[in-house]
Structure formats: structure tokens, C-alpha cells
Specification:
single chain, alpha+beta, 10 helices, 213 residues, 5 strands
């Protein structure tokens, strides 16, 4: 799937921000020690903006900066047809050159570009007042945005991440506990035990309370 198709499935910025935070929270509960964790979320990353990130450790990643009414998303599928590394280290036409000037500072920020300013295969954005997400490409090439942003685009994020994290961590998770996280129910010892039976639930609740989600 390419960026124009992905844009049609993305939720509004406030919902995307909430999903990003809850995804990082769920993974923290599954893997509180952080080894090989994929998702992270920084509240108040910049004034009025939060930052959600994903890196799979294999060269594929995304960053999504979100306010209440706006957002910008950087995707990087290192094997995609629109990767600069497949195009003489040039950005694919309609990606960086079409980005509104308001978002240019994000591309220069190491937190957002992940330490490599060339790691862009797709960009999507939404300005205040926009009714949907936008991109500057025509959609003729696969840019990896569809599978990278699958958890944000899926109509049932709890089911999506229940399956995803069971595969990734090769563990068994309670679907009800995963739903509790995505529905914003208060965390309880029963909920956290449903996603991590290896850590004392009281200790896990104390640890998650100290994490700046």
C-alpha cells in the first residue's frame, strides 16, 4: 500500500496520538526491561506536540509527531521502491519537496528522523483544519507506509496488536487485557497479569506509573 491509500485509513491526529501512546504502553507492560522493544512514545516532546516512534531493528521505522489537530508522519521502509537508497540517494518526488513549510523543522530533528535524515520513503501530514491526511506523491510506487502504519490504520487496534505482539514476543496475551489497554480502562493487577505473567503485577504497575507516557 502507498501513501495516498494509507492516508485514507489513518485516524484523526488526536486518535492517532492516543493509539500511539497505548501501543507503547502495551509493549512496556509486555517487555518492561526494554530489550528489543519496538514502540516508544514521548509526551510533551515539543510544546504542544507528542512523538510516537517505531523501529523494528531491521532498518524499517516510522515517527509520528502529533498535536490535538495536526500531525506529520515519516515512514522508512529500507527496501521500498521510494527509499533514497534505491534512487541514487535522492528523495522520491513528492515526499520531502511537497511537505508544508510548517513541518520542515521536524525533518531536521534527530528524534524525528532517527539519526539519518535520508531515512524517508513516505511522508504524510495533516494541518489544522484539514479533513484528512495528505501526501505529495501520486501513489505509483509501494512506499511501505501501509504495513508500517498498520496498527494506526486498523479498525480494531486491540486485535491487531494482540496478534502482532504474540508473534513478535512468542508469548500468550489475554485479548481482554489488551482491549483494556486500548479502551483506556484503569490498569489493574488482573489486566497487567494478562499481558505479563513473569513480573509481579504490583511491581509492574509501579514501574509503568513512573514511565512518562
Amino acid at each position: 500500500m502507498n501513501a495516498p491509500e494509507t492516508a485514507r485509513h489513518l485516524p484523526d491526529p488526536a486518535t492517532a496520538r492516543d493509539l500511539s501512546r497505548r501501543t507503547a504502553l502495551l509493549e512496556f507492560l509486555i517487555n518492561p526491561d526494554g530489550r528489543h522493544r519496538k514502540y516508544d512514545f514521548l509526551s510533551d516532546w515539543r510544546p504542544g506536540w507528542d512523538l510516537g516512534t517505531m523501529s523494528n531493528g531491521g532498518g524499517d521505522e516510522y515517527a509520528v509527531a502529533l498535536s490535538d489537530t495536526a500531525g506529520v508522519i515519516r515512514c522508512f521502509d529500507h527496501e521500498s521502491q521510494t527509499s533514497p537508497y534505491a534512487n541514487d540517494e535522492e528523495f522520491w518526488p513528492g515526499t520531502v519537496d511537497a511537505l508544508p513549510a510548517e513541518f520542515a523543522p521536524f525533518l531536521a530533528d534527530p528524534d524525528f528522523h532517527g539519526g539519518d535524515e535520508s531515512s524517508v520513503s513516505a511522508l504524510l501530514w495533516r494541518l489544522p483544519g484539514d479533513a484528512s491526511w495528505r501526501t505529495g506523491v501520486d501513489g505509483g510506487r509501494d512506499d511501505g507506509s501501509g504495513w508500517l502504519l498498520g496498527g494506526l490504520c486498523d479498525e480494531n487496534p486491540a486485535a491487531y496488536h494482540h496478534e502482532h505482539f504474540q508473534d513478535y514476543y512468542e508469548c500468550s496475551l489475554s485479548l481482554d487485557s489488551v482491549r483494556a489497554v486500548f479502551e483506556g480502562r484503569p490498569l489493574s493487577e488482573e489486566v497487567v497479569a494478562g499481558v505479563n505473567s513473569t513480573v509481579d503485577p504490583g511491581e509492574l504497575l509501579r514501574r509503568v506509573a513512573a514511565y512518562p507516557f
